[in-house]
Structures are given as structure tokens and as C-alpha cells.
Design goal:
The structure is a homodimer.
Chain A: E1 15-21, H1 25-33, H2 35-41, E2 48-54, E3 61-67, E4 73-84, E5 88-92, E6 114-122, E7 125-133, H3 137-145, H4 148-169
Antiparallel strand pairs in A: 1-7, 2-3, 3-4, 4-5, 5-6, 6-7
Helix pairs in contact in A: 1-2, 2-4
Chain lengths: 171, 171
């Protein structure tokens, strides 16, 4: 059993979204690791997520295509670093799948970050923590200005709605 | 048990050193993972390795200080990605410890790469493979011009000499 990595959060560099949600850690894990679920909640409406590829192991590919209401598509690809079922999922845009360093950043809105999703059982639901680690305060600033809290928060609302609706359907 | 990551080697992007050495995989592993050993072989003479820090787990720190005969010091720091004892060790300079993206590269001789050391038992010794993965052909070219094959080869000769001498002393 590998010891979990230490994630050191620095308020000057990082962004954190912490919420309690009324779905079990099992369902949060499924929502994040099965493309058929992820495509229904990952991008705040009216944006959509037409494509999702998940190779769920360290070094594996996490690739998503997001689409604007005008039909403009944006692809993002990263590499999983830690896959600890129903507890912690970490990936980074600083590496391509297979751990190769990602190409240098080319535009102002493009920057690499490492993301961690941490889920802890709490009452009938989950204490949900999403962390984005950045290399410098500038990248943190760009990510915040792009609407990190609002965007990740809305996506989480969608995750909850989708997974609760599925749970109801399967009763 | 986590499945091992796929490392895809691209000759246009990557550098590989493959050799058979007459030390066991156990000793190669020790040489790479214990600072007291690593400091004696890591940097080809007359350069030395006065400092080495190893936090041997995914996300952990790998930090080395190398010193030239003139006393100039160069520090390098990376993050372990895979720690599979006596089989495979992978780290990257594209991430800081704790998986944070590393600062953007600042100079021509400075570039990020991911390194993998693979050891396989073969006869009385080890089939040893060192791989350096780069983001683009330019970084591969810089690394090759800096003397990747010669430097990593000489360091490996030193590793073998140091570990065999220790093994003899302990008889």
C-alpha cells in the first residue's frame, strides 16, 4: 500500500472549492471516473461535454472535449497521478499521458494546473474538496478570473443532480 | 495493486540508455533510493554530489545538488511519480514535490524531462534501462548535446563500482 502524497496548499498559489453534497462518496467517485456520467455534468450549461476519455490509472489519459453553445470546441488533456478509489483522484495538465512533460503554454488563457478531488463520507453525503495547484500567482489569478469557483461550483451542482436522478431511477 | 503506467518511447523525443550491469536489481534499487549511496555515484567525476534528498513515494521530493571541480553548485528538484521497488522508478522535473506544476523554464540549458529507471534481473546481474522523456525534439536535442549518453553511462559505471565494492566489504 503506497502512502498518500502530501498536497501542500498555498493560498497565494492555489484555489480550493469545499462543499458538502448530498450524494455518497461512491457516487461522486463514479461521476468522476465513468465517461458516461462525466459527460452529463462536467461543463456548466449551456456548455456541453461531447467527449471524454478516462484511462483510470497513474500515467493514464484524462481527456475531455467541451463545446460552447456556438459550437466552438476546446480540448483538454492531462495525466492521472493518483487513483485512490472513493477517496482521492489527482491529475495534472503539466504532463501528457505516460508522464511526458506537456508542451509549453502558448496563450494567455492556457496554463497548466494539477487538480485533486478529495471525497470524505460525512453524514448522509460527502465532504467534497476540489483543489487546483498552480505554478505561480499569475496562473492562480488567470484561473480565478476565468471563474474557477463559479464554474467548478456549477459543475458540482450538475454532478449532484445527475447522480441523484440516476439513484432515484434505479430504485 | 495498481497497473503499471504505459511509457511510450518516441525516438524523435526521447533518449534511452540500455546496458547490462553485473550487480543485482536489489543493489541497483538501493543505489537509486538511498542518499548515502546516490551521493557517491550520481555525478560523473570530477563533479560530485554533496547533497541528496529522497522522499520515496509518489508525490515525494527528489532533490540533488551537484558540484563542479571549481565549486559551482547546481540544484535539481523533481517529484516521484512511480515507486515500484526493485523494478521501476519514475520521477519528473515538470512537477515540484506534491505534484505542483514546476515554474516555466528560464534558460536554454534548463528544460524539464521525465526519467524512468527500469531494472530487470538477467543472469547474474541486471538489464538496466534509463529513459528520458521530453516535451519536444528541441529539449531532446539539448539533453543529447549536454552529453546524456556519456554522462548517464559514466554515472552508471560509478554506480556499479560503488555497489560492488560495498558488496565485497560486507562479505
Amino acid at each position: 500500500m503506497t502512502e498518500l502524497a502530501d498536497l501542500t496548499i498555498d493560498p497565494a498559489l492555489d484555489l480550493v472549492l469545499e462543499r458538502w453534497v448530498d450524494v455518497s462518496p461512491d457516487l461522486v467517485w463514479e461521476a468522476w471516473t465513468q465517461p458516461r456520467h462525466l459527460k452529463r455534468w462536467f461543463t456548466p450549461a449551456p456548455f456541453t461535454t461531447p467527449e471524454c476519455e478516462i484511462d483510470l490509472r497513474p500515467g493514464g489519459r484524462f481527456r475531455v472535449v467541451m463545446r460552447s453553445p456556438e459550437g466552438e470546441e476546446m480540448e483538454t488533456e492531462g495525466c492521472y497521478l493518483e487513483v485512490t478509489p472513493v477517496r482521492r483522484l489527482i491529475w495534472t495538465g503539466a504532463l501528457k499521458p505516460g508522464y511526458r512533460p506537456a508542451p509549453a503554454v502558448r496563450s494567455v488563457t492556457d496554463f497548466a494546473f494539477t487538480a485533486a478531488i478529495i471525497m470524505e463520507p460525512q453524514g448522509t453525503g460527502t465532504k467534497y474538496t476540489a483543489i487546483a495547484l498552480h505554478r505561480d500567482p499569475e496562473d492562480r489569478g488567470k484561473h480565478e478570473a476565468m471563474g474557477f469557483h463559479d464554474g467548478w461550483g456549477k459543475a458540482l451542482d450538475q454532478l449532484v443532480a445527475v447522480m441523484r436522478s440516476d439513484a432515484r431511477d434505479s430504485v
